[in-house]
Structure formats: C-alpha cells, structure tokens
Specification:
With 573 residues, the chain is of the alpha/beta class. The protein is built from 19 helices and 17 strands. The protein has 3 domains: 209 residues, HUPs (Rossmann fold, 3-Layer(aba) Sandwich); 136 residues, Methionyl-trna Synthetase, domain 2 (Beta Complex); 152 residues, Isoleucyl-tRNA Synthetase, Domain 1 (Orthogonal Bundle), CATH 1.10.730.10. Helix 2 crosses helix 3, helix 4 crosses helix 7 and helix 5 packs antiparallel against helix 6. It is elongated and about 95 Å long. The structure holds one RNA strand of 74 nucleotides.
RNA sequence: GGCGUUAUAGCUCAGUUGGUUAGAGCGAACGACUCAUAAUCGUUAGGUCGGUGGUUCAAGUCCACCUAACGCCA
C-alpha cells in the first residue's frame, strides 16, 4: 500500500469560485484522491481557504463586517460548495488557523537564521485618512501618459503604461477616495530566493516527468533577465500573520504581517496539523506525512494547481522548505492546468463572467459538471466551455451511453427474469471476447489515472461503458430469450456484472451515480477490479437488485438556450 | 518590447524517440436492432496537419522565418 499526500491550490477567500478555478486544481485533485483511495492506498487529501491580504480586507469592508467574521462566513460557504461538488478533502482548512500562524513564524525565523531574509527600507504611499499604507494598485489617479482618470498606481489599464504611484496626477486612495497621501519610509523583509537559484535549478531539472507547462514556467522565472528575483514577504496590513521570528519579536517589524503568498503554501503543512487536531490525533499523525525524519520517506506528494500558481510552488515555497534546513517533504509531482475559457472569453471573478460553483449546482447535480469539466480539463492548452458542448457531452456520454446501459440491462432483466441475477447457461466466446477487451481497457484506464492524464482517462472510461452496449447489441438477449432462455440468462448476468464494474470504475469521476448504481445492485463494497475477469462473475445467480431511477436526465435544447441567455451577462452580486 | 504556450476533419481534441493508406468522440448520410432515457450498434463521407523555406531516403513530428490567438514578465 502506497501513501499519497495530495494538495489542491488553496482558493482565495474572496467570494465564490467559478468553474475555471474548480477544474484547475480542486476537481482533478479530487479525481486523483478518489482513485488512489479506490486502489486501496492511504491518502491524505488537503485543501484550505487562502484568507489573508488586501482583497479580503476590502471585501469584508464592502460587506460591512470585521474581516475575521467575513472570512469565517466565506470559508463556510466554500466548504459547503466543495461538499456539493463532492470534493473529498480529508480536511478543508484555513490559512488563518493558529497552526499556520505558528508555522509561518517558525519558517521565517529559520530562514532568518540561515541568512535568507534581507531587511529593506522602501518608500510607500501612506493614506492619512485611511490610516494605512496603500498597495500600488489601490492608488488611483490621472494617467500622465493618456489622461485616463482611473489609472492605477501600478498600471494604466487604458493605455497599459506601467506606472509608479508617484507618476499619477491627483492621486487618491482607491479605498476611500482620500487625497491626503504622503510617501513614507517603511521596512520590509525579502526572501533571498536568488541565493538558492542553483539548487532550485538542479531540483527542477531532476523532474523529467513533470508537465512541460510546469517546468517551462519555472525555468523562465529562473533564467529570464537577471534570473530569479528576491521577493518581499511582508506587508503593512492589519489582517494577516504578525511578523515574528519563531516565538520571538522581530524588532522594527511591529504592526506588519507576512505577505499572503508566503503564508499560503505553508498552509498545506499547517492544514495537516488542523486535520490531526480535528481527528483528535497527536502531532506525530501529521508529521508522518510531512517530515521525512518522522515517517514521510515513503510518501508520494502530488500538487494540483492552475498555471498562475506554478512559480510559487516551484520556486518560492521550495525556497522556504529548503532554506529552513529542516527535513520537510518536497513535492514529487506537480500537475498544472491551463485556463478554462467561457464562451469566447475568460471566466472572471472580478467581472462576474461565466458560471460560478453555486450557480452550477442550482442547475444540475455535481456529476454532470464533474464529467464535463474533467473530460475537457485544460491540460495541454486553454480549453473552452460552451453550452452546446456541455449539452452534447451530458446527453451522449452520461445519459445515452452510461445511463441508458444501466437502464436497459436492469429493465430487461426485470421483465424477463425478475429483479435478481438470473441462473442458467454459461459464458461463451462472445462473453470471453468482451471480457478480454474490458480487461485491456481497464488496465489502460488505471495507467492513465496513475499518470494523471485526466482527459484521456475520461475517454477510456467512456470506451469501457461503450463495451457494455456493444456486447448487448451483439448478443441480443431479447432475441436469444425466445429460443434459448438459458443463454439469455448468462448474457443478462454478464450485463449486470458489467453494470457493477462500471459503477466502481466511474466512482472517481461520478461519485453520486456510482453510489446509486451500487445501491440498486445492493452491493455495499466497492473494491477495485484488480482482476476484471474474476470481477465480472461476482454477481451470482439469485443476487437481488432494484431498477434504479433514471441516472442522468438530458439537457433539452430549451434548457440550453435558457441557460446560455441567463449566463450571457455579468453575475449580479 | 522580451519570453512562453497553442495553431491537425464542420465542432472538441489524440497523434510516443521523424517511417507503410493522419486517428477518436460529437455533428452529417445510410443501414441494423427494438431490451432501453426516440436510447443502442454498424458502415460511409469529411483534413494539401496555420503559411513559406530548409535538413533527411523519409516530417503533422526536427530547424529557420512569417502569421494568428492566448498567457506571463518588464
């Protein structure tokens, strides 16, 4: 039995995530976790909300709530939606947890001891009325280049010119509109990533089996221009993890917090601590997943994320772990995804464009979305959601191929033999041929799932379902029954066994449908078919079953048109 | 401006280290079947593999340049 540590990039706390966010990390991570569990391996699957930073503060202010209260509420909302999509996290944590506070401060202390932290005094705009420093993009003013009056301190989005806040004419706070701004000195900490450049480079080079997308992004950051740059890891904010050196104060850094990108990946580890606490386990329980000196030697660690997160996971977070000088478990495989587009443009949280997780579940159950999203996962390049494509995939793959197979075999059996696996006859040449093909395909399916080839796995799974329809069509038990009922019984028996097989194989993609089929077949274990040939004889004569309700309803043209219209504009908050 | 990714049948995509007539699903046409959610199964049609040039006995598959889309960085 292998041990799999699996993490999904942690979604930002600010609002409900859209389907593009979902398919880029949480959903494929869940597919992999469910598959590895089904194969009998020990799995710890973790995710959390990323809660710190200015956007969270502003969203809380807009909602008229204290930021801690806002985050707690939004965490509950995201947790509920994750459950709705059947994301099987062992723990859904929070980057604001006490565990993450302690661990983040611990890492900062270790890095400082190792000489990997540099203190830098820089100048930043301070808003007197707001009583706070303003990040560049929260300063607005008139662009000196084009005259656009809502240019931001980092860039003018009208003429795209890069700006410094001090370039702006009539600068004002984007938060309050206040114009009483001044430039003040402020001290910040920088993580000296550049000091570990060669080590990181060699480490990335050793990962020959990572997706090109992952390594090419990491390589670009390592070698582009002047090479890997040091990054600021602190901010002048109230909401966040206070800057401390382990348990000790950090002179000169009072009132400052760590920058969100520094503490967010550390939450992967802290989350294991939260999990242990929630399970009533001791520290050793989570350390055996994360410390190679405490049992994590045989752990295989896989991370899932969208391409925008790759630099932090290939460079910054590894710098934190390596730089600590402690034996932390490093990632073994990093599966990254491109973006999912929506009907000719990008999904956008800020513009409310596309379909969001809560809206999706109001329209259809999780399995429908899981199937489309995973079978169209943007692995090789960006991919695109269209309603027509979605409708076709749901109707053909789920309703016609899988759903109808379950329906036709159970109903045929009920009408000819009753609601129990029929006795009589035996498997012959046609059965052997089908079993042989299924055996081959199951092996390929497992191989694709092992290597996280998401789209190809979906294709192979569908091909396995088709084997069921092909078989029934070829042997035609409805005809056989008229002349050789014994043989028809054997054919029906294999058909029902195929239904059992499909349920087990489909569980990682379609957990609800899988359960429904197993319940109808009155099977309470879901062991993996290590030997499909043996597996297809498990349902023996006399085993009772129920005919299930329709597994997947079709999406009508009217539904499709209505939804397309409903989602053509912006999401109303 | 620099870098990266992508460009294959009407649509969504596969195409290993270059090697016989470029594949799948959907859609289309035709046929078979009638157990089933008017479902299923089969057959056929459809592509000068973005463009130009090059390397090679041989290129969708390597090289150069060009074009387009998207992204990242500055």
């Amino acid at each position: 039995m292998a041990r799999h540590l699996i993490t999904s990039a942690i979604p930002y706390i600010n609002g409900v995530k859209h389907l593009g966010n979902l398919v880029g990390s949480q959903l494929p991570a869940d597919l992999f976790a469910r598959y590895q569990r089904a194969r009998g391996h020990e799995v710890l699957f973790l995710c959390a909300t990323d809660e710190h930073g200015t956007p969270a503060e502003l969203a809380a202010a807009k909602a008229g709530k204290p930021v801690a209260e806002y985050c707690a509420e939004m965490h509950a909302v995201q947790a509920r939606l994750a459950e709705g999509f059947r994301l099987s996290f062992d723990h859904f944590g929070r980057s604001s947890s006490p565990q993450n506070h302690a661990l983040t401060q611990h890492f900062a202390g270790r890095l400082a001891e190792a000489g990997l932290i540099q203190e830098v005094v820089e100048q930043q705009v301070y808003s007197i009325r707001d009583g706070r420093f303003l990040p560049d993009r929260y300063i607005e003013g008139t662009c000196p280049n084009c005259g656009y009056d809502k240019a931001r301190g980092d860039q003018c989005e009208n003429c795209t010119k890069q700006l410094d806040p001090t370039d702006l004419i009539d600068p004002r706070s984007a938060i309050s509109g206040a114009t009483e701004l001044e430039v003040r000195d402020t001290k910040h900490l920088y993580l000296r990533q550049s000091a570990l450049k060669d080590q990181l480079d060699a480490w990335i080079d050793s990962k020959a089996d990572w997706p090109v997308l992952t390594t090419s992004i990491a390589k670009k950051w390592l070698h582009d221009g002047e090479g890997l740059r040091d990054r600021g890891i602190t901010r002048d904010l109230d909401w966040g993890i206070p800057v401390r050196k382990g348990d000790a104060d950090w002179p000169g850094m009072e009132g400052k917090v760590f920058y969100v990108w520094f503490d967010a990946p550390i939450e992967y580890i802290a989350c294991a601590g939260e999990w242990a606490e929630a399970q009533g386990l001791d520290a050793a329980a989570w350390e055996r997943w994360w410390r190679t000196d405490k049992g994590a030697d045989d752990v295989r660690y896989t991370q899932f994320m969208g391409k925008d997160n790759v630099p932090f996971h290939t460079l910054s977070f590894p710098t934190t772990l390596i730089g600590s000088g402690e034996p932390w478990k490093m990632v073994d495989h990093l599966k990254s995804f491109n973006y999912l587009n929506y009907d000719g443009g990008q999904f956008s949280t800020s513009q409310g464009r596309g379909i969001f997780m809560d809206q999706a579940l109001e329209l259809l159950p999780a399995d429908y979305w899981r199937w489309w999203l995973l079978s169209h996962a943007p692995e090789k390049s960006d991919s695109e959601f269209t309603w027509e494509n979605f409708q076709s995939a749901v109707n053909k793959d789920l309703a016609d191929v899988l759903g109808n197979f379950i329906s036709r075999i159970t109903k045929f059996c009920r009408s000819k033999f009753g609601e129990a696996v029929p006795a009589g006859g035996q498997y012959g040449a046609a059965e052997a041929a089908t079993i042989a093909e299924v055996e081959e395909r199951v092996a390929r399916y497992a191989e694709l799932m092992d290597t996280m080839e998401v789209r190809k796995s979906a294709q192979e799974l569908r091909a396995i379902w088709v084997c069921g329809n092909e078989y029934l069509q070829a042997v035609a038990p409805w005809s056989t029954f008229k002349t050789e009922p014994q043989q028809a019984a054997a054919q029906t028996r294999l058909g029902l066994n195929l239904a059992h097989l499909f349920a087990v194989l489909s569980a990682p993609f379609l957990p609800d449908a899988s359960r429904t089929i197993l319940q109808s077949l009155k099977i309470d274990t879901a062991a993996w078919p290590d030997d499909p040939s043996e597996f297809l004889s498990r349902l023996e004569a006399g085993h009772a079953f129920d005919v299930p309700d329709v597994l997947f309803a079709k999406v009508s043209d009217d539904d499709c048109a209505a939804w397309k219209a409903q989602f053509s504009g912006r999401r109303a908050d």
